[in-house]
Design goal:
The protein is of the alpha+beta class. The chain has one domain. The chain contains one helix and ten strands; from the N terminus they run H-E-E-E-E-E-E-E-E-E-E. The chain has a five-stranded antiparallel β-sheet, covered by helices on one side. Strand 2 and strand 3 form a beta hairpin. The chain starts with 22 loop residues before the first helix and ends in a 9-residue tail after the last strand. 18% of the residues are buried. The model has no long low-confidence stretch (mean pLDDT 84).
Length: 199
């Protein structure tokens, strides 16, 4: 028996037919790609917000720590903290309140530009401000030393000297900072060393 094999040759130069994507397949692939890109963008945005919030909270708490340390150090070094109004020939120093801390520095540590140092809590802006007053009654500009402070920071305990005059025996500073949903409370207390009497 004779068999014949028939071989069909394609015409040269004519490519094989390749089946492409149909319209529904293209639409489904585009929808999947869009969902993936949206999820990646949302994750990136969320992580950026978290990084920004952490950075702002760190900055606010670090400023609060520095402010607290500075206030307590100045309190320990103080000549006096006015618990009553002190009158000088050409000006007067207001007394200590929950929002205002006037510190008289020792003469040895004073510069020509500083006689009284004021720490003031500004409730509308929630900041603790620092300013200086020289012996010629000139006030410096106020500088913010802590921000996002939620309440008045100063409390104190009074003592009485041998003449039965009141003085600040101990100052307590409580700095409560709120940044977003994060809250931290920093506190400490100090006494002016010149008022300490050892028995």
């Amino acid at each position: 028996m004779i068999s014949h094999t028939v071989t069909m040759n394609r015409r040269p130069g004519r490519p094989a037919r390749v089946r492409g994507l149909s319209l529904p397949e293209v639409m489904i692939s585009l929808a999947i790609t869009t969902m993936l890109l949206t999820a990646i963008a949302a994750a990136f945005h969320s992580s950026s917000q978290i990084i920004t919030a952490n950075d702002e909270f760190f900055r606010a708490t670090q400023a609060g720590r520095v402010c607290l340390t500075q206030i307590l150090t100045e309190t320990r070094r103080a000549d006096a903290i006015a618990c009553e109004r002190i009158n000088f020939p050409n000006f007067s120093v207001p007394p200590l309140t929950a929002d205002l801390l006037p510190i008289s520095r020792p003469l040895a540590g004073q510069s020509s530009m500083e006689f009284i140092r004021y720490y003031r809590y500004d409730a509308p802006t929630k900041r603790i401000m620092l300013s200086f007053q020289d012996a010629n009654v000139n006030m410096s500009a106020e500088h913010p030393v802590a921000s996002k402070v939620q309440k008045s920071p100063f409390a104190w305990e009074l003592g009485y000297d041998k003449d039965n005059k009141p003085f600040v025996k101990r100052l307590t500073v409580s700095v409560e900072i709120l940044e977003g949903t994060n809250n931290i409370r920093l506190s400490g207390s100090a006494a002016p060393r010149r008022t300490i009497v050892y028995e």
